[in-house]
Design brief:
The chain is α/β, with parallel strands linked by helices and 296 residues long. Helices cover 46% and strands 14% of the residues.
């Protein structure tokens, strides 16, 4: 034990001496590692960038040095996003497009290439909760809309980005959900849950297909997040089919009733896009404070 302690102490002393003996420029370079912008020179596409998770992600990627194409259905949101990125010293490109429209998505990616000449990172975030209703009441049109935005939108985003990602390698993050992957008790959310489950299957299929081209793809599965997506959820008679459950300490074991912030999700997305996750692909990650383990 004494011998081990002595060797460990000597090793620490040697490392300290080595660092102290470096010239000041060399020391400064080491000290700056933690603040180095990891995405400098990269071009990123973020869908649904006008609010919530997409907005937080676009701002963080720009902060880390990436040039960010902020895509949203609403033109005013894309303009506001690019202005905010510019105000913070970044470079952005606003794109208004419907992720479920093949022509619009193909054109959006073409604009990125025309503008910057490359595409390295993709965040397929755009999505809707859609209509939550008993199976007898949800219409085929409502079902199609939910799957079109959430699943077809992911497919189109990745499809048109892939030829450019293959050129130099890259990374993709797909925004799935705890619904359809671990939680199946939100009765009425059938269309949404099916789309989110399919996004994970899509991610795994793409991981093998894109791996030889050094393109990574992963999915994250958030639980409750403090965004405005609930305001866009249409609930119709779900109380008739939902099983009542009460969580005395709140539905999120880690925080009680406190949902995740968009910024917390942005940090995970950034990690998966960065070289820190260079050996991770085809994987889904839950970020829910253990909510899905309780509610599933």
């Amino acid at each position: 034990m004494v011998s081990f302690y002595y060797r460990k102490r000597k090793r620490c002393q040697t490392m300290t001496t080595t660092f102290a003996s470096l010239s000041r420029p060399a020391q400064s370079n080491l000290e700056r590692i933690s603040t180095f912008m990891q995405l400098t020179g990269k071009v990123a596409l973020v869908t649904g960038a006008g609010s919530g998770i997409g907005r937080a992600t676009a701002l963080l990627l720009a902060q880390e040095g990436a040039k960010v194409a902020a895509l949203d259905l609403r033109q005013d949101r894309t303009e506001e996003m690019t202005a905010t990125i510019a105000e913070n010293g970044g470079e952005g490109l606003g794109l208004a497009a419907d992720v479920a429209n093949a022509g619009e998505m193909e054109q959006a990616v073409a604009r990125i290439i025309d503008h910057w000449g490359r595409l390295d990172l993709v965040v397929a975030n755009a999505g809707i909760n859609g209509v939550w209703a008993p199976i007898e009441e949800i219409t085929p049109e409502e079902w199609d809309t939910t799957l079109a935005v959430n699943l077809k939108g992911t497919f189109l985003t990745v499809k048109y980005a892939t030829p450019h990602l293959k050129k130099a390698g890259g990374a993709i993050v797909v925004l799935s959900s705890v619904n359809g992957t671990r939680i199946f008790s939100n009765t009425g959310a059938t269309a949404y849950s099916c789309a989110k489950a399919a996004q994970v299957a899509f991610t795994k299929m793409m991981a093998l297909e894109l791996a030889p081209h050094r393109v990574r793809i992963n999915a994250i599965c958030p639980g409750g997040v403090a965004t405005n997506i609930r305001e866009n959820t249409q609930l119709r008679n779900v109380e008739q089919v939902r099983q009542p459950v009460t969580f005395h300490n709140g539905p999120i074991p880690l925080t009680g009733n406190e949902r995740a912030t968009p910024e917390q999700l942005a940090q995970l997305i950034f990690f998966l896009l960065s070289d820190n996750a260079s050996h991770i692909t085809g994987t889904e990650m839950w970020i829910d404070g253990a909510q899905s383990l309780l509610q599933g």
